[in-house]
Write a structure and sequence with these properties.
10 helices, single chain, eight-stranded parallel sheet, alpha/beta, 228 residues, TIM Barrel
C-alpha cells in the first residue's frame, strides 16, 4: 500500500451494487492515476469479482474469514479472495466488530495469502493494540461520529494525534488513516496534517449526488496535503 490513501468503503448503500458501484470504482481509478495517490475501493462481497475485473486499483473485501477452502458454509474464506484478485481486507469496522483474537487470525491468514489488511480501531489505545498485530494499515474511527458528517479531524483532533503517538511507540511502519465523519476535501487535508496518511470514507461518497466530484476533490486534497 502506497501513501497517501483514499479508502472508499462502499458499505451496502443502493449505490454499492451493479453499474453504480462500477462507476464509482472507475472514478476512484481515474483519480488515483491523475493525482498519484492510492485509492482503495471496498465493495460488498457480491460485487468483488466484477469490480476487481473492471479496475486496476486495489479492491478490498469488507470482511473475510481466516479459512482456506473447505466445509465452511456461510463464511468468506480469505483463500477465495486471493483467487478473485482481491488485494486486501477491511477488518473490525464498527459495524462488524470482532474480538482481538479474531482480528489476529484474519491478519495472519491474510499475510499467508499475500493480502493486505486495513484494521479499524475506535480509540488510540485500541489502535496501539492493533498496531502490535502488524497489519498493513489501521484506521482510527470513533464510532459515534461515523455517518454523522462531523469529521473526527474537526470534532476530536486529539484522537488522531494521540493515535499517531501511541501507534508509533509500538509500530513505526503501519500506515495510519483517519475515519469517521470525513465529508469534505478540507476534512481529508486536516486529517493528513494531523499526522495520518489518508482517510477511510463512506457515505460522503456513496450517498453523494456526484460521487466522482467528491472523489476527485478528496484525492486532490490528499495529494496536496501529503506533499507539503
Amino acid at each position: 500500500m502506497k501513501t497517501p490513501v483514499l479508502a472508499i468503503n462502499f458499505k451496502v448503500y443502493n449505490t454499492s451494487f451493479g453499474q453504480k458501484a462500477v462507476d464509482i470504482a472507475k472514478a476512484g481509478e481515474k483519480a488515483a492515476k491523475e493525482y498519484g495517490i492510492e485509492v482503495i475501493v471496498i465493495p460488498p462481497a457480491t460485487e468483488l469479482r466484477r469490480i476487481a475485473s473492471e479496475v486496476s486499483i486495489p479492491v478490498f473485501a469488507q470482511h473475510a474469514d481466516p479459512y482456506d477452502f473447505g466445509a465452511y458454509t456461510g463464511w468468506l474464506p480469505i483463500a477465495a479472495l486471493k483467487e478473485m484478485n482481491i488485494k486486501g481486507v477491511l477488518v473490525n469496522h464498527s459495524e462488524h466488530r470482532l474480538r482481538l483474537d479474531e482480528i489476529v487470525a484474519i491478519v495472519e491468514a491474510a499475510k499467508k495469502h499475500g493480502l493486505e489488511t486495513l484494521v479499524c480501531a475506535d480509540t488510540p489505545i485500541a489502535a496501539a493494540a492493533v498496531a502490535a498485530i502488524k497489519p498493513t494499515a489501521l484506521a482510527v474511527e470513533p464510532p459515534e461520529l461515523i455517518g454523522t458528517g462531523i469529521a473526527v479531524s474537526k470534532a476530536k483532533p486529539e484522537i488522531i494525534t494521540n493515535t499517531v503517538q501511541k501507534v508509533r511507540e509500538v509500530n513505526k511502519d503501519v500506515i495510519i488513516l483517519t475515519g469517521a465523519g470525513i465529508s469534505t476535501a478540507e476534512d481529508v487535508e486536516a486529517a493528513i496534517r494531523l499526522g495520518t496518511a489518508g482517510v477511510l470514507v463512506a457515505s460522503a461518497i456513496m450517498k453523494a449526488q456526484n460521487p466522482e466530484k467528491v472523489i476527485n476533490d478528496m484525492a486532490m486534497a490528499a495529494a496536496k496535503a501529503y506533499r507539503k
